[in-house]
Specification:
The chain is an alpha+beta fold. It is 30% helix and 27% strand. The chain has a domain at 33-102: Beta-lactamase Inhibitory Protein, Chain:B, domain 1, CATH 3.30.1450.
């Protein structure tokens, strides 16, 4: 039986390649979704147009007529290298931002 072992330098090269591939895989998501850092540019009292100018077009919108609220939903990576995108929500009343941040009560978790 002829078992071939990798030398130390070959193991280091393979480990480096693995780290690079993982960084590219997770880093690409930050390019697609953006990071949550731009949420810090939002402030209470901004108009809907100002929020969209900063954050871009939402992936989804919603409304609640009983509360007279409109919701802008965004997907963002929490950090440049994160496992999956998180959902962030901007809440508007009468066209002004009244609340924003990560949506923890997310019911439809997509794990892809």
């Amino acid at each position: 039986m002829n078992i071939k072992f990798l030398s130390l330098s070959q193991r280091r090269v393979k480990l480096s390649l693995l780290i690079c591939c993982c960084t590219l895989l997770f880093g690409c998501q930050a390019v697609i979704y953006g990071t949550a850092a731009d949420m810090s540019s939002i402030s209470i009292g901004m108009t809907k147009a100002q929020a969209i100018q900063i954050l871009g077009q939402p992936v989804s919108v919603g409304a609640d007529s009983d509360k007279e609220e409109e919701y802008l939903i965004y997907k963002r990576m929490k950090h440049a290298i994160s496992a999956w995108p998180r959902t962030y929500k901007v809440t508007l009343r009468k066209g002004l931002v009244v609340k924003y941040g990560e949506q923890y009560e997310e019911k439809n978790m997509n794990l892809f």
